[in-house]
Amino acid sequence: MKTAAHLGSEGDFDVAIVGCGVSGANIARRLSAYRLRVAVIEKETDVSFGTSKANSGIVHGGFHHNRKYLKARLELRGALMFDELRRQLDFPFRRCGILVAALHDEEMKAVEHLYLQGVENGVIGIEMCSRERILELEPKLSQDTVGGLYAPGGGIVEPYRFVFALVESAKKNGVAFYTDYKLSATEWDAKTRRWTLRAADGRTLHARYAVNAAGLFADEVSSLFGAEEFKIQARKGEYYLLDRLTKARPGRVVFPVPTAVSKGMLVIPTVEGTVLVGPTADSAEDKTDLSTTEERLERILDSGRKMIPSISANDVITSFAGLRPCLEEDFYIEVSKKAPALVQVAGIQSPGLTASPAVGEYVKDLLKTAGLELTEKPDWDPYLPPRPKTREASPYERDELIAKDPAYGNIVCRCENVSEAEIVEAVRLGHTTLDGVKYFTRAQMGRCQGGFCAYKIIKIIMRETGLGYDQITKRGGASRILEGEL
Amino acid sequence: MKEIHFDAIVIGAGAAGMAAALEIESSGFTCALIDREDHLGGILMQCVHNGFGLHEFNEELTGPEFAERFAERVLESRVAVYLGTTVVSIRSNDVEGKEVFCSSAEHGVIRILCRSVVLAMGCRERNRGNVRIPGSRPAGVYTAGLAQRLVNIEGYIPGKNVVIIGSGDIGLIMARRMSWVGCSVKAVVEIMPYPSGLTRNIVQCLNDFNIPLHLSCRTSAIYGKDRVEGVEVTPLENGAPVMEKSFRIPCDTVLLSVGLVPENELSKEAGVELNAMTNGPQIDSTMMTSVDGVFACGNVLHVHDLVDWAAEEARRTGAFVVAWLKGERPALQVRVKAGPNVRYANPGRVESGRENKLYLRSLVVKNDAVLEVKLDGKPIRSIKKNHVQPSEMLTLSVGDKDLGGATSDSVLEISLV
Predict the structure, then answer these.
(1) Percent helix, strand, coil in chain A (nearest 5)?
(2) With an 8 Å Cβ cutoff, are B134 and A288 in contact?
(3) What is the pTM of this model?
(4) How far apart are CA B149 and CA B45, in angstroms?
(5) Measured between beta carbons, which residues in chain A are less than 8 angstroms from residue B88?
(6) What is the structure's pLDDT at A3?
């Protein structure tokens, strides 16, 4: 995201949200409905570049957690909010349903427990499946499957597209976003009752209330506010991405029977047609370490194949890792007891994406209890314009698009079928890194992984932004793409 | 929406596509040549080194020069050229033949109705995910072809200190190219015990620049946070990694030259059956795929060593398309089987009554090998080969005299001993 325009600017806000992942974005968008001046600061170059960019992209089925946990209550509430959000914001989301496949008779006991928990949680349509039933629902499942669970309300979502849409909507309704804004210090002025938030590069802004939605770094941010001391433990999840032409694509999300510590490794038909297999769950010391290892990746294919035997290493187009921010068993969303006018939103691991719309609402209510006055804006506009995609258009629809803007006819990314017009749109919305364009448009996300289109995208970014070749990065910072000119 | 009719269309305007289109047009049939890029010549345009055309023109040309020879003839011919035009789908239809939708900024969506289609889309590079190299995901990891594009056409240097993974020809060519533009190429790391590129490229691109080639070595990790900081290399002994002998090579750039894959997504969606060995279409003795009227040639069919051979294959394919358009169909076709030590043989069928040219790839590195041809288990020919290796394609001609007594159930087996 562009920052130059904001450099040195100081603003006075009612609420400042630290961190623009799926939690921060939902909080910002929810608050944008009120007469408030809201700022979001993000240390990365673009939004959704942390935990929110590398996760399973699932809207959960509401049966994995007991209602005694806040995270379960928010999950149940959040899951129900996705349909309306999709109508307003037009991001990729589909209720494809979730299956839990049991491979041994002993596992059916755990399935029964999940079923009862789901029923208790009020999940609609949840169903215990016989072997015949589950194989009918998903014929690609292993013949060893003995039965399982079906939750028709579960779904799949493109997490970064969800965040981008929330951010765009919040911006449209007046929220200010500051990227490359790495919080380095805060001060509370008891007289004016205002926080000052200083960035490492010298920018400052003021706010009456602050929200700590800093994901993996929520512990460090909490310290910067002089608030509660806690430690976020990163837990790494590695994934394989399979080509959209794989024969192993299931119709629904397939879970194994969970263990005490993890929901296990899943096979996920992504909304956009590819297949994800993963994640692993291993503690990581370094909160920036997104490396993958051979042993873990092998484990992923092995466990994926146990459920869907047709998964083939030949279909792998890439692997990646994400880090979950783990604190305790539950989410920690509270008004700080130590620092004034601060709401902590920490430890948002799974089912954080599912819960996030409800987290937005919950934090809005917490801010109200802490004294923030909320007056609805009469002119709040929850809608974003629909974004045509050449990938989804029929030949006749494409022809109409090209008549309006010829750039829809120029296919830049052949693997995912993305036109120049869509890339230009991403850049104009502020996604000016190769990864930002990738997450917004899917260009470079297909089987060639940018081998054919990366140079074209670099040229479009340079043309649209005026950036020099040496300012083009993969994901901001020092991740420069080109090191010299001939 | 624009609607146009042709006897044949050729998808892809690289060497193969241009050669096929010229052949079809020369017989008086109407033909369109379609390419998604805005120039003729395909990937040849970024191959500014020489070594092209020795068979086709008896001259040593650069890639663009080779392409230009064909492009000039195409532009002088009646071949209808559509550049900046991406084929979106191919469907077969009983009434109209083939219905092909294309997308172009200039023309919008074009609906082409034609009797036959030639697939000549070429191939793409395998990437990091395909060969599953673990580690972090910093900037600075590129396929060799992308780096070639950046340097030779866009005029940018992707990085200064380079390690090349895989010893495919593009990687070798880029080792030399990067050295010429002032970069330091630290090493080429190859997992196999032998190089996968042509011998001449090992000599001219590595040996002449003192670039070390680590054979039987696997890249076990790429490391670096924002930008590549190095690679970890693990030697293999008897195929197994020896972790304690792992070493690191610091670098800021990794180029991947780990093989090419025919680009057949469009073919698959058109219902064309693929050969698991080549990743290209299954073809009969006339280069026709499993879909009637759809032909394939060049690197989309199987990856060639030399563009000269891709062009030659495409010209023959063009002639087969002409024959098909005239209503000629092969008489007796005999199935070709890749026997021991042969990875594949293309085409998958030969026709009696004429000469058939076959391309094959060895599975082994071997001196003093013998290419054995058997019809229904009976040896009919054996040909001495001084040296065979997987990276060098072999050719074989099978004529009518070889196929005497063959029936439609016969099998022609080709093996290397």
Answers:
(1) 35, 25, 45
(2) no
(3) 0.94
(4) 9
(5) 395, 398, 417
(6) 44
